[in-house]
Write a structure and sequence with these properties.
Keywords: Amino-acid biosynthesis, ATP-binding, Kinase, Nucleotide-binding, Transferase. The protein folds into two domains: about 220 residues, 3-Layer(aba) Sandwich (Carbamate kinase), CATH 3.40.1160; about 150 residues, VC0802-like, CATH 3.30.2130. It has 13 helices and 16 strands. An eight-stranded mixed β-sheet has the order 3-4-2-1-7-9-10-8, with helices on both faces. Strands 12-13-11-14-16-15 form a six-stranded antiparallel β-sheet. A two-stranded antiparallel sheet has the order 5-6. The two termini are about 30 Å apart. The mean pLDDT is about 90. Bound molecules: aspartic acid (ASP) and magnesium ion (MG). Magnesium ion binds next to loops.
């Protein structure tokens, strides 16, 4: 069985939803995971913030506007009776229930999460109704009946597997297409919760891993992972094949196409992921599997909003346990570290969240002098066995010869070389690297794409 996930833009209008209906309809059994219609989750976030701030009047106007959007959506998607009426009843039910939350005395986080879940609830219900209207053998299975996170927010794969096996085998013997929601789940207290923004990819790979799918297809609006950021660099191209490791590095470092955590479950169970373009289904896309890309350099990606922190201290000389104490500060403030480089008397590291920066700096000042550089970007060069090719570094440094480098991390993994530059220098760095690593015919690096 396959798992196919369609993102918000792929179901962003009635016309696009109909396209998805055609794309999945090859008669083969599959699970179809949908995001909310694009824009809806943002609107639901905004709505819950208004309710939390007790701005009920504005909230109620926004809610009415969203209700109207869906009324029109249904009118276009399901033009005839009785499907039109059924679709409008779905919209009415969900919006009436949401409206009741406006008037609660105490609006709690569980109410907020319930609201955030409604985008996926509504898109899947309407899509499944559309398949009924088209007389396609389908069934809706609620993610709330099988997708679960534990008390640490981690998905419980055994539970997901058991529940899915049961739901698929027992309840819908005649269905070929199973429709379910991405993003939403239940937590350890059995409340409605979610897998964080953009989490529908993660839902899809968890489902794919749980049922040991033959393949997980993630359908978005671009044709796979590109070898550099197409918004900044000209003449990028989609990569046909990468390993799980390379894909995870790229997803984390800014190739926005895939949610970073979602590679893990697929890799654990060796289920291939294929990234496809809804608007160009014929395009090859990118295959992510355990097979190595066999390419020295696969792609370049960048991540903005990075803060670099340097701690300089004579106490580091010949000391042990120093780094542990530095890391404990970040642990205490639950702030992950992305890059790290050290010298004998100082250590530089980067974080991508400034939420606890003042407390972190205060705690680090106990060890020595602390300096902070904000607005940095990590540029990450990803490939297969990078360090085995000695000429790689020469080309990288030549490409970046006129750009000040704040940090360089080499050798942490054979798939990744990371370089920290100021945000202002990022575009120039990406373009120059592209030229030197992919377009320079004198180099032996850019092998068959
Ligand atoms: N609808 C959710 C979001 O916008 C989840 C997703 O699209 O993956 O974040
Ligand atoms: Mg998305």
């Amino acid at each position: 069985m396959q798992v196919l996930k369609f993102g918000g833009t792929s179901v962003g209008s009635p016309e696009r939803m109909r396209r998805v209906g055609e794309l999945i309809d090859d008669g083969l059994p599959k699970i179809v995971v949908l995001s909310a219609v694009s824009g809806t989750t943002n609107k639901l976030v905004e709505l819950s913030e208004l309710i939390r701030k007790q701005q009920i009047e504005v909230a109620s106007i926004k809610l009415a506007a969203l209700r109207e959007e869906y009324r029109l959506f249904v009118a276009e998607l399901l033009p005839t009776s009785p499907f039109q009426e059924k679709g409008q009843a779905i919209v009415k039910g969900i919006f009436d229930e949401t409206e009741q939350l406006l008037w609660l005395n105490r609006f709690e986080s569980r109410h907020e999460k319930w609201i955030l879940a409604q985008g996926e609830v509504i898109s899947t219900q309407l899509f499944q109704l559309y398949l009924e209207y088209k007389e396609r053998p389908s069934a809706l299975i609620s993610a709330l009946d099988f997708m679960r996170i534990d008390e640490h927010g981690e998905p419980d794969l055994d539970w997901i597997q058991q529940r899915l096996d049961l739901l698929l085998s027992q309840q819908h013997p005649l269905a070929t297409y199973f429709i379910t929601q991405g993003y939403i789940c239940r937590n350890a207290s059995d409340e409605v919760d979610n897998l964080q923004r953009g989490g529908s990819d993660y839902s899809a790979t968890l489902i794919g891993a749980a049922i040991r799918a033959t393949e997980i297809q993630i359908w978005t609006d671009i044709d796979g992972i590109h070898n550099n950021d197409p918004r900044i660099v000209e003449n990028t191209w989609p990569i046909r094949q990468v390993s799980y490791r390379e894909a995870a590095e790229l997803a984390y470092f800014g190739a926005k196409i895939l949610h970073p955590t979602c590679v893990i479950p697929a890799e654990d169970r060796q289920v291939p992921i294929v990234l496809k373009n809804t608007f160009e289904p014929q395009a090859h896309g990118t295959l992510i599997s355990s097979a190595s890309s066999n390419r020295t350099i696969t792609a370049i990606a960048a991540k903005d909003g990075i803060t670099a922190i340097k701690i300089q201290s004579g106490r580091m000389l010949h000391a042990y346990g120093f780094l542990r104490r530095v890391f404990e500060v970040f642990e205490q403030y639950r702030t992950p570290i992305d890059m790290i480089t050290t010298s004998e008397v100082s250590v530089s590291l980067t974080i991508d969240s400034d939420n606890h920066l003042p407390e972190i700096i205060r705690a680090l000042e106990v060890f020595g002098e602390v300096s902070v550089d904000k607005d940095q970007s990590i540029i990450c060069i990803v490939g297969d066995a990078l360090s085995a090719h000695t000429e790689v570094t020469k080309h990288i440094f030549t490409a970046l010869e006129s750009i000040p480098l704040r940090m360089v991390s080499y050798g942490g993994s054979s798939n990744n070389i990371s370089i920290l530059v100021s945000r202002d220098a990022k575009n120039a760095a990406l373009r120059s690297l592209h030229k030197h690593l992919f377009q320079n015919t004198n180099t032996t690096l850019s092998v068959n794409f």
